Structures are given as C-alpha cells and as structure tokens.
Amino acid sequence: MDIVISNASNKPIYEQIAEQMKDAVLSGALEEGAALPSIRALAADLRISVITTKRAYAELEAQGFIETVPGKGSFVAGGNQELLREERLRHVEGLIDQAVREARSVGVEKSELHEMLDMLFDGM
C-alpha cells in the first residue's frame, strides 16, 4: 500500500494516513481481513513518528475501518458494508456540493445541472 505524505497539506500527518487508508478500504484496494503494516513498520517506511502512525490507526479503529488484535496486528474490519456505504454516500454528497457551488458561481441553472447529471449518470 502506497501512502504519500504531503508537508504542504493543511492536514496533520495522521489524518493524511487515515484518509488514504480509508480511501483504500472504500475503493476495495484493501479488502476485508487484509493485514495492515505494523505501526512500527509503517512509521519506518514513512519516516515519521510511531506515535503519529499509532494515532492514525486509532482513528481508523474508532471509525470502524480496522480492527487490532493484540499480538497479531491490525486488519481491515469485516462486516461493515453499511458503514462503508454511508461513508461513500458522504463522499458523493461532498462532491455534489462542490459541483453545485461551482455551477452557481458560473450561473448554471438548476435544470441545466440536473440535465448534466442525468447525462453523466446515464452515460456510465
């Protein structure tokens, strides 16, 4: 799994890690039950503090994306399809919100936006 840390980002490093791992789970790149790198291994690979990596894993666990088994490691949580769907829906809502704001800024009418959405949706 490739995680890219950006020093130019406004987000703390632990949030960048958590967000990229969550995206990998939501996209299916990380499947249910998949073993994650150990906290120490990931910290070493990214050349960051173990505390930062631990915080990212703790956040993912609190959100239900991963499970940690003492002595065995961390794994992608299973049985959370409803959670995954809800997270994806929130992501889609955010993208639609962004599109609506952009459309309003250039004077696109609601009916035009609906027409664009219908065309894009039907074209896929």
Strand order of the largest sheet: 1-2
Q: What is the name of the CATH architecture of the largest domain? A: Orthogonal Bundle
CATH superfamily grouping of the largest domain? Winged helix-like DNA-binding domain superfamily/Winged helix DNA-binding domain
Helix content: 55-70%
| Number of separate strands | 2
Q: Any idea of the CATH class of the largest domain? A: Mainly Alpha
| Shape verdict | elongated
How many structural domains can be distinguished in the coordinates?
A: 2
**Any idea of the CATH topology of the largest domain?**
Arc Repressor Mutant, subunit A
Give the overall pLDDT as a whole number: 91
InterPro entries: Tscrpt_reg_HTH_GntR, WH-like_DNA-bd_sf, WH_DNA-bd_sf
GO molecular function: DNA binding; DNA-binding transcription factor activity
Protein name: GntR family transcriptional regulator
Domain HTH gntR-type: 11-79
